[in-house]
Prior knowledge:
It contains 12 helices and 16 strands. By secondary structure, it is α+β, with helices and mostly antiparallel strands. Strands 1, 2, 3, 4, 5, 6, 7, 8, 9, 10, 11, 12, 13 and 14 form a 14-stranded mixed β-sheet that branches. Strand 1 (57-66) and strand 2 form a beta hairpin.
Amino acid sequence: MFRNYLKVAVRNLLRNKTFSIINIAGLAVGMASAILIILWIQNEMSYDRFHANSDRLYEVWGNDVYDGAVRSGVSTPEIMQPVLKKDVPEIDKAARVSWGEDYLFQVGEKSLKPHGMTVDPDFLTMFSFPLLRGNTDALDQPYSVVLTETLAKKIFGNEDPMGKSITIQRSQDHIVTGILKDLPNNTQFKFEYLMSYVYNTVRKNIDEDWGDVSIRTFVTLKRHASFASADSKIKNVIVQHSGGTAKTTEFLYPVSQLRLYSDFSDGKPVGGLISTVRTFAIIAAFILLIACINFMNLSTARSEKRAKEVGIRKVAGALKRSLIAQFLIESILISLFAGILAISIVQIVLPSFNTLTEKQLFIDFKSMGFWISGLSFILLTGIL
Length: 384
């Protein structure tokens, strides 16, 4: 029976070529637009959720009262990290991150200023940025540096960079102790190299003023540790250690929430980029709905001709459910052809769309999830 429905549906499409082309093309453009938006939404929703410890990763934030209003921020004192590891038993690891340090790198006659960060050694085990060369202890030594794959190629070409020396800021040689795979595009961290915070410790270049907030601090809680307990213990750590001169109260905020929920009001999260994501989700739904309405309008225009077909089928003994099945299969078949065309359109325009959005979106054809969601999308569109 299904084979017969399919055969009749194909014959109807071939017999009415102009109608079929207009319907498939219109639906394909709508589906392609929706797919592009869905790819963008998927990317935004996945920010820093790929880390193995993402459910235990937190950033230390601070609330400060200024002009009667509570202001929330990410800056913390440099001296806080060792104190947290020592005094808060729920914390497994902690890392300071000094953001955006564009130091001058020199190797022979070659010099450049890449974008990097100075981090504590724990950073490499806390975050799942894959190391292609070296181990997670690559930043244990003060004069060590970890490069991304692309930066290593820029500096050393096809040579093996491991163990090579780089002069930083025309003063100190650092040894390459690790090579990181280039960062994915769904992370808030943007760096080409990592330097060790141990270097600052050795040089005694750590600011011990609890009132001077200049870096960001990330922590990983122990498995099964109480978040509420850890959060309460760090709340007054600055007040206690500053002798009451600093009034900032600290709290833990999930790293997985930083991208979409980073707007605060009166010390409480009130949203952020998530509102834009929701808006685009609604836009994608409306685009698809308009494409489906266009399909239905065109089908209505042919209703008189199809009414004769339905009448003849009824006279021949066709049941209501068989007629419904026939029309559903035709619409799903059109949706299937439109879906294939839509994916082709997406592949063509994706480079330009990536330039517009400053992302590296792609369709993973090897993923079973893509095929399941793609077929579900086509089926849903056809039924709609």
